[in-house]
Amino acid sequence: MIGSMRLKSSAIILAAALALAGCSTISNVGSTVGKLNPFASKKPQEASDASESQRISIVAFDQKVEANENLKGQDFFLPAAAAQADWPVPGGNAEQSVENVDAAPAFQVAWRRGFGKGSGRSLHVTSPPVMADGRIYVMDAEATVVAIDARSGGVLWKTNLKPKSKRDKMGFGGGVAYADGKLYVASGFRFVAQLDAATGKLGWKTATESPIHGAPNVSGGRVFVISTDNELLVYDITSGNSIWDYQALIEPARILGASSPAVSGDAVVGAFASGELVALRTSNGNQLWNTTLAKASRSNALSEIRDVAGRPVIYKGDVYAASHSGVFAATDLRSGNARWTLAVASTDTPWPAGDVVFVTSTAGEVVCASRETGQVYWVRDLNQGLKKKKRAIWTGPILVNDRLILVSDKGQAIALDPKSGVTKASLKVGASVLIAPIAANGMIYLVNDKAELVAIR
């Protein structure tokens, strides 16, 4: 699963996808499959946590993005940092676009709070935190949803949504989103649910045909999720009834993760394992446009994995998204026409702000490009000069107080200068972090593999 977890090699991705896509249960069925299953131990008979050495970034593709000589040292506009009271959905808002948040000036850990089952051999914490009304909402590896006081870290309530069915005893993935006093939950245990955000009481729960590994988005009275079968599913927030669904191309070779759709007005943009980026009417699912962020490389079979695992971002009339196969693009929201493309392989969510857009590649390179032209201002290789075992998987960035914040599977958070990529500060956060942090209420919040919520002031 990439986006929250990168895979080890093309064999792992292909085999795991073929064996497990469409399944909410993961298990070892023999020594051969055990070796190919990225969530299995090396010895199928023994359970063990996935080690950091297994979570290495996939090698870069044959094209390398470099800074434009004419732009080196050139300044660009970034919006001033602004207070962000809440972060109700995983992308911050329905368009999944937040510019520059005023938060965490000291860049120090304020507190940490364990909230449940952490990542292991076949269970994984994948849900980004969300925040509303002074509470942080998180979900552990076994579908227990927890409300935590955003200031003190005190646990307010817990609700376990794990099914009692033996069939689904090892599901994983999903996420949460908040709207109008309700919390909406999607899960790899094959359901979408609504909880009361103040008490955790279950409102409704609707079964899905396939696991959901991505978090929901909520807008206009609808819940939007994407299943592992490349379906965009839409539900009524009041009843949980299905409104419509859209089936993208079936992709047997895929990353075991899923994106969250972005919504702007009457358009919802979904990103799929097929490399498709699709805009649909929120009211009825009618297709507005469909494009594919994919390319093939003769020298690298990994480019055949087309998955757009990061969230698409809608910003000032354009959609920004990147695929694992090496296409990072700005697409016009109205027409679906590409404004520009860059050869960047990524499984993370881009971050547009002001004149530029930032994205992190699977190799650990942070790229700063012009939003208008796609020309590159700077590239920072966060793994430069490091031996293979010491290279980190970097997730992010988000822009906080004029700093690009990224986290890693080595338990590190760093702050980069957005104008140059130079490191301004670094911080140990205690455990592997594979989920991008959020920033609200004057703090940065992140979730690590141990199912700990860490607050940074």
Notes on the protein architecture:
This protein has one domain (10-456): Methylamine Dehydrogenase, Chain H (7 Propeller). The protein is built from two helices and 32 strands. The radius of gyration is 20 Å and the shape is globular. It has a four-stranded antiparallel beta sheet with strand order 1-32-31-30, with no helix packed on it. It has a four-stranded antiparallel beta sheet with strand order 2-3-4-5, with no helix packed on it. The relative contact order is 0.17. It is mainly beta and 457 residues long. The chain starts with 9 loop residues before the first helix and ends with a strand. It has helices at 10-20, 31-36, and strands at 109-114, 130-132, 135-139, 144-149, 155-160, 174-179, 182-187, 191-196, 202-207, 217-219, 222-226, 231-236, 242-247, 262-264, 267-271, 276-281, 287-292, 313-315, 318-322, 328-332, 338-342, 351-353, 356-360, 365-370, 376-381, 394-400, 403-408, 412-416, 423-428, 438-440, 443-447, 452-456. Strand 3 and strand 4 (144-149) form a beta hairpin. Mean pLDDT is 86; it is low at 1-61.
β-sheet strand percentage: 35-45%
Rounded to the nearest angstrom, the radius of gyration is 20 Å
Q: Enumerate the spans where pLDDT stays under 50 for 5 or more consecutive residues.
A: 1-61
Number of helices: 2
CATH class categorisation: Mainly Beta
Oligomer: single chain
Mean pLDDT: 86
- Total count of domains: 1
| Structural class by SSE content | mainly beta
CATH architecture: 7 Propeller
Spatial gap, N to C terminus:
30 Å
- Spatial order of the strands forming the largest sheet: 1-32-31-30
Choose one word for the global shape: globular
Number of strands: 32
What is the CATH topology?
Answer: Methylamine Dehydrogenase, Chain H
Helix content: under 10%
